[in-house]
Design goal:
Elements: H1 6-32, H2 45-68
């Protein structure tokens, strides 16, 4: 099997780092400043915040996997 090009490896690590940073910022800002007023019909702000916190953790996991993946 041939080895992956250097540019592909660098791009994978770069996008992994970007995903990790965006996920961490998403979790941090959603946790520190949850919505105060929700529109009528929305059960609570907990569900609204938990969706974005979960998405942030998914981005963190994807970023870590991209950083740790062995290319080629």
């Amino acid at each position: 099997m041939s080895e992956a090009p250097a540019g592909l490896t660098i791009a994978e690590k770069f996008f992994g780092l970007i995903a990790l940073i965006i996920g961490a910022l998403m979790v941090y800002y959603t946790h520190t400043s949850p919505p105060n007023k929700m529109p009528p019909g929305v059960p609570s702000s907990f569900w609204f915040s938990s969706i974005f916190i979960f998405a942030g953790f998914v981005l963190i996991a994807v970023g870590v996997l991209l950083l740790l993946a062995k290319t080629g």
